[in-house]
Design goal:
This protein has ten helices and 13 strands. By secondary structure, the protein is an alpha/beta fold. The protein is globular. The termini are far apart.
Amino acid sequence: MPVKCHFFLKTEKILGINEFFSYLCTVITKKMAKKILFINQEISPYVPDTNMSLLGKNLPHVIQEKGHEIRTFMPKWGTINERRGQLHEVIRLSGMNLIINETDHPLIIKVASIQQTRVQVYFIDNEDYFSKRQMATDEQGVDYSDNGERAVFFARGVLETVKKLRWTPDIIHCQGWMSAVVPFYVKTAYHEEPSFANSKVVTSLFTKSIQKDFGDNFKKCVEYKDAKAELLNGYKDQFDFEELGKLAIEYSDGIVQAEKEVNKTLLTYAKEKGLPVLGYQGEDFADAYNQFYEQIGADGTQNNE
């Protein structure tokens, strides 16, 4: 004679065994789901296809498909066609002024959706830093002299917007040198903010770099709240690509080798720091990244090459 099994929930509702296991699977899935914030320098199709921009599009998509909750940000480069990309301003998130190098800079937030992937993208915009400019270089291919200030504005703009969204990411994944200041801010200026108090930071290493350094005033520009300039005393006064990468690594909880060939100095630096490092995964990366997020969220102590 078959035995009937019943299970009681806190609601005192009686479930049969099939209903119970369905309920259990739902609970487990929700428990494992994470909130992941992607801070990207480039995302296709808003900029030309590169390894970085394609990963900026595809990674949030596959992670969202695995049941995680995501938010995605990038700069609103002046080369982006707002009409074609269907960008529109989010009035309730815009309007804040960020003081960079003793000057007020209005923060404008725009949003659009990538139709193929159903991923929503938030754009950080400012007339001085982004909307009238190309990416890292001008029309003559020369690095902008204020790229350091632009990176600072972008980092603070993203973090302030996430605060306004009242969202608490478990993982913050930074991709591209433009996002390299974010780990430093998360662990210093924003470490007591409820949105970021428990966030773990992952930084991806790419081949693409900047040619010129950020100049003499970068350490002064980056200073904000507990992100004191003296914390950067161990770095060169001239912040170049490698110094910026070391700063990101120093304040990250995990590192990803996003391309087959990346800066060897930075990759070695990450390993010497004892950080978990996810090696290059090629095109079949979804499961490896997902597991890496789980690892970093759990303890961030193992190496995962």
